[in-house]
Amino acid sequence: MKELVRVEDLQKTFTMHHDQEKQIVGCNGISFDLHDGEFIGITGKSGAGKSTILKSIYHTYTPSGGKIIYRSEQFGPIDLVTATDRQILAVRKKEIGYVSQFLNVMPRVTALEVVMDAIIEMGGKAEEASVEARQILAHFRLPASLWDSFPRTFSGGEKLRLNLAQAMVKKPKLLLLDEPTASLDNASKQSVKEMILQLKSNGTSMIGIFHDLDFMETVVDRQYNLSQGLLMDKVGS
Asked: What are the residue boundaries of the ABC transporter domain, all occurrences included (predicted)?
């Protein structure tokens, strides 16, 4: 398998400007690689820095140091730490997806439109997007009665299912999953598992952070544990 992402000595430090410029270390010295169609799971206590790693790759956070070499279809190998805003926006649009427990969408856009827009953004036509969006919303067990509603009224679990549908319908090269099963019932978790395995079989690479270890072990290829700033490979341990 070809290498898709190589993280080298990733560092992220936050400066607390309201607290005498105090420095808070989000993560430090993080290194690993990810190959085509591979899924890496990261575990660790709350506050260990797991989300910081994902947000640094997605460039929600600007890393303080290190490298994140990503093999882009549009640009070839690029360092996501030093990439331009134009490059970051382009790879987010076409290549890299991100799922979190929190939904960030326009306030007057329905759930169906959220997913349709994701498909159209990838070059799909409106009529095809409508059919595909309905299929994936049904797959993630979002009730049809909510499809024409505004997501701001949804429960936490409903927002997460919509987030999953919006990201996964694009079939990205790289998918970052931040607690993808939080607040989901067992039936919805099975829907997530089925979609993850389908994406993997089609070549999508994934990095996920989990508290649900039983679920994680059914989908990942390698596991790491983040503790005291160190990322330890759990394979063979």
From this structure: 5-235
Alpha-carbon separation of residue 62 from 67, 92, 197 (angstroms): 11, 15, 31
Q: Which two tokens stand for residue 9?
A: 């000595």
Q: Quote the CA–CA distance of 163 and 175 in Å, as a whole number.
A: 12
In this model, does residue 144 exceed pLDDT 80? yes
**Rounded to the nearest 5 degrees, what angle is found at the Cα of 160, between the Cα atoms of 155 and 162?**
95
Place of tokens 């994902």: 54
- Sheet holding 65-72: strands in order across? 22-35, 3-16, 65-72, 76-79
- With CA atoms as reference, report the closest residue to 165 among 144, 134, 187, 189: 134
Question: What's the whole-number mean pLDDT along residues 33-55?
Answer: 93
Instruction: Give the pLDDT mean for 163-169.
Output: 95
Could you tell me the residue ranges of all domains in the chain?
3-233
What mean pLDDT is predicted for residues 22-48?
91
Confidence of residue 235 (pLDDT cuts 50, 70, 90): low
